[in-house]
TrEMBL record:
Residues covered by the Lumazine-binding domain: 1-96, 97-193
Official protein name in the record: Riboflavin synthase
Catalytic activity from the UniProt record: 2 6,7-dimethyl-8-(1-D-ribityl)lumazine + H(+) = 5-amino-6-(D-ribitylamino)uracil + riboflavin
Pfam families reported in the protein's UniProt record: Lum_binding (PF00677)
Role noted for this protein: Catalyzes the dismutation of two molecules of 6,7-dimethyl-8-ribityllumazine, resulting in the formation of riboflavin and 5-amino-6-(D-ribitylamino)uracil.
EC number per UniProt: 2.5.1.9
Gene responsible for this protein: ribE
GO terms of molecular function: riboflavin synthase activity
Length: 216
């Protein structure tokens, strides 16, 4: 698990791609401290396992499913990436609970400056937007942000100057893709609303469902 609070910006040092997968070597410093082979490092919002590391870089494998559902396949040598080590139980939860499992990709639609903030509009598919709520949490390329606006085509977030300095988001251009992870609570609720098990067909969570399961 992660918090969506980016620890540093790393840079792609080397990419080995096959037709469906990739191996990335990422130059970094802070996230290497205390990390070892087998640990997870959130890279642009994607939970990846360290398979090799040295004093200035770490290497991860990217499997086909991750390549299909994220923007990691678009990275090139020297591309910047947001990095965060896994959450420790003693840490403060300053962002929100982020799994590092990407729900899909959105596209930067607009960036507008307002005083010390910057509004970023992101277009996304209906299957993602249904989980995005006003004032809810969203992870964009691994960055924990609050949704300030949402409609049927896009959502908006507002960034403070610190987010610009410590993440890659405002270095993006219109049309660039971003990895999106919606708040997992909504997905769990949807699953419960369509409850099913190996012996039963899907049932709506209504008064009968609650009564049958001892809640009334």
């Amino acid at each position: 698990m992660f918090t969506g609070l980016i620890e540093e910006i790393g840079y792609i040092q080397k990419i080995n791609k096959t037709t469906k997968s990739a191996k990335l070597t990422i130059r970094a410093s802070k996230v290497i401290e205390g990390s070892k082979v087998g640990d997870s490092i959130c890279t642009n919002g994607v939970c990846l396992t360290v398979v090799h590391m040295d004093a200035i870089s770490f290497t991860v494998d990217v499997m086909p499913e991750t390549m299909r559902s994220s923007n990691l396949g678009e990275l090139t040598t020297n591309s910047p990436v947001n990095l965060e080590r896994a959450l420790q139980l003693k840490d403060r939860l300053g962002g929100h609970m982020v799994s590092g499992h990407i729900d899909g990709v959105g596209k930067i639609h607009e960036m507008i400056k307002e005083a010390n903030a910057t509004w970023v509009s992101i277009k996304a598919s209906p299957k993602l937007l249904k989980y995005i709520i006003h004032k809810g949490s969203i992870a964009i390329d691994g960055i924990s942000l609050t949704v300030a606006y949402v409609d049927q085509e896009m959502f908006k977030v507002s960034l403070i100057p610190l987010t610009k300095e410590e993440t890659t988001l405002l270095g993006k251009k219109i049309g660039d893709s971003v990895n999106l992870e919606c708040d997992m609570v909504g997905k769990y609720i949807e699953k419960l609303m369509l409850y099913s098990d190996v012996t039963e067909t899907k049932k709506p969570m209504d008064m009968n469902f609650l009564r049958e399961n001892g809640f009334m």
